[in-house]
Specification:
- By secondary structure, this protein is mainly α.
- The protein has four helices and no strands.
- The longest helix is centred in the middle third of the chain and has 14 residues.
Length: 71
């Protein structure tokens, strides 16, 4: 079986028993952890899904045209 992603979704993380044990041990409320994850997700840039989008994202950060130059 091939895994297609490495990260848990927020809902998966909130249901994960190991994460729940760590939160309990650290005295962190599940609702506070949920808020932290949702805030971080809101600030995160979406992942580009194709090579073209990756090039465009890099070009935007460097203020370059999105078209690659060859030759």
């Amino acid at each position: 079986m091939r895994k297609t992603r490495d990260d848990l979704t927020i809902s998966e993380a909130l249901r994960d028993p190991l994460i729940a044990m760590v939160l309990r041990a650290d005295g962190v409320k599940l609702e506070d952890f949920k808020q932290l994850l949702e805030t971080a997700a809101g600030k995160r840039e979406p992942r580009p899904t194709s090579v073209g989008k990756v090039i465009g994202a890099l070009a935007n950060r460097a203020n370059l045209p999105a078209m690659p130059c060859f030759g």
